[in-house]
């Protein structure tokens, strides 16, 4: 079985060790992981690779080595306008971002597991609509799980318990937003080392507004047949438990896991997070 985890990690809000292992692609400053799997045909040993897709090296630098030690191979990409991708932020669209994920999926042999964090839950949902036969599972990590015809912005506006909105700055010239550093610790990293907050001050950048205002185009025939799993962060002050629970109640998942963490368990609880990824991969 070939699997790829794609995890997404946009944080600003434009509204204010088994034998079989999986490959992971995380979304934000994307990271890809392939894992060797051995089988025998007529007495000859064959080595296959499963794939995980992840993004944003900032977010996954603690998770990646743990997966690599388990035999996974890790790859990274940057979504348009993010990280090392120098696409002008004012030109970025949701379609552009999803197409980049799909291009990566198409380049990997076998199926993948996509992991979406935060706003980029919308990206893995749309990718599943376009590539249902290439995606084994979807994992939403404190992520926006939005139904057909709706936008991430609509659900963000319902989340009145979060602390980020007063700290979101909008830039009309580039149609983008940033998050003021003053809220990083409380809003994103309250259970993380202070070094993570300092790193974020250097690496977090503008995010395109248009992606959060683009309605998802999903069908039961495509998106609906890809198994979904949700990991709720119960101490999240960015995408709060209220809105996480509302989303996975409206769009049910096969299983919901809970972690007592902030919005950033890949920093505060990387070992536990990797265990959940592997558990889901084995289901």
Primary descriptors:
single chain, 283 residues, alpha/beta, Rossmann fold, four-stranded mixed beta sheet, 12 strands, 30% helix, globular
How is this structure best described in words?
- By secondary structure, the protein is of the alpha/beta class.
- The chain has a single domain (4-282), classed as Rossmann fold (3-Layer(aba) Sandwich).
- The chain is built from 10 helices and 12 strands.
- The protein has helices at 57-60, 63-69, 94-107, 121-130, 152-158, 184-188, 194-203, 241-250, 265-268, 270-282; strands at residues 4-5, 9-10, 23-26, 31-41, 44-54, 112-118, 135-141, 168-171, 176-179, 207-208, 228-233, 255-259.
- It has a 5-stranded parallel β-sheet, with helices on both faces. Strands 1, 3, 4 and 5 form a 4-stranded mixed β-sheet that branches. Strands 8-9-10 form a 3-stranded antiparallel β-sheet, with no helix packed on it.
- Helix 3 packs across helix 4.
- The longest helix is centred in the middle third of the chain and has 14 residues, at 94-107.
- The model is unreliable at 12-20, 28-36 and 45-50 (pLDDT under 50).
């Amino acid at each position: 079985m070939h699997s790829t985890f794609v995890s997404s990690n946009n944080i600003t809000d434009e509204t204010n060790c088994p034998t079989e292992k999986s490959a992971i692609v995380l979304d934000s400053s994307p990271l890809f992981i392939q894992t060797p799997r051995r089988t025998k045909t007529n007495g000859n040993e064959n080595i296959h690779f499963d794939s995980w897709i992840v993004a944003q090296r900032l977010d996954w630098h603690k998770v990646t080595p743990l997966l690599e030690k388990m035999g996974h191979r890790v790859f990274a990409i940057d979504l348009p306008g993010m990280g090392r991708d120098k696409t002008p932020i004012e030109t970025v669209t949701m379609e552009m971002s999803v197409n980049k994920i799909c291009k990566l999926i198409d380049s990997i042999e076998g199926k993948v597991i996509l992991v979406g964090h935060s706003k980029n839950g919308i990206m893995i949902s749309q990718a599943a609509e376009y590539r249902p036969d290439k995606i084994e599972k979807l994992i939403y990590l404190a992520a926006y799980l939005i139904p057909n015809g709706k936008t991430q912005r609509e659900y963000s506006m319902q989340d009145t318990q979060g602390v980020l909105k007063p700290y979101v700055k909008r830039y009309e010239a580039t149609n983008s937003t940033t998050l003021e550093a003053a809220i990083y610790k409380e809003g994103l990293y309250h259970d993380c080392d202070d070094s993570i907050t300092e790193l974020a001050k250097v690496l977090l950048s503008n995010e395109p507004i248009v992606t959060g205002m683009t309605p998802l185009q999903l069908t039961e025939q495509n998106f609906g047949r890809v198994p979904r799993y949700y990991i709720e962060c119960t101490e999240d002050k960015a995408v709060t438990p209220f809105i996480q629970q509302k989303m996975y109640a409206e769009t049910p998942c096969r299983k919901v896991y809970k972690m007592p963490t902030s919005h950033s368990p890949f920093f505060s609880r990387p070992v536990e997070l990797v265990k959940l990824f592997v558990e889901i991969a084995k289901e």
